[in-house]
Please model this.
Amino acid sequence: MNDRLALTLSIYQAASLVSTVTANPNLLLLLAIGYTEPMLCDPVFFIISRRDIERADLRETLVGLKHLTSSVEVAKAYCERVDIAFHGYDDDPRELWEIPEVREFVYKLDTHFPYWLFFLDKKLLGLRCLAWCFLPPFLKEEAQREIYPKRLAELLERRWFPALNAIAGWVGMSDDEIMAITDRSVEYLLRGPTSA
Model:
């Protein structure tokens, strides 16, 4: 078996792999790779290994992410049905977005794939982690209240909203559908994940 394994999992199958992932920190789960037909009922989880982060190796992650944009049908099927996580940092007391290697990996990943608002599930934590990687770490609460809204607005206006509009237009979403995703995204970034 390769160090990196591409698997397709349903949300129910993910729990059975926890011991496998824990036993092999180099395992990278890229879901829905190689499938030409979308799985309409299963969400997709990208779990990025610490090894790939420390090596700044985006290749396998990008293969999986690019699959999400391989066709209009696949993109529509996974709209707000994806999450991303980083494996191998459970023993690190810092938040993921405070770790320089994670932040750098996210910056590089975002230059190749900025479609987070379209694909990431607003009930899960992946989008929050990615967004917080673009904010200055280690600020006191008062400074966060002042700086975070400005930085998030810049990220959204310059990068993530244009990407959302581009891919939503490509798949043929109406203005109302795009606005609904925009509203859910802003609500999520301001208040956290929504309830199921």
About this structure: The beta strands are 5-6, 29-30, 44-49, 82-87. The chain has one domain: 5-191.
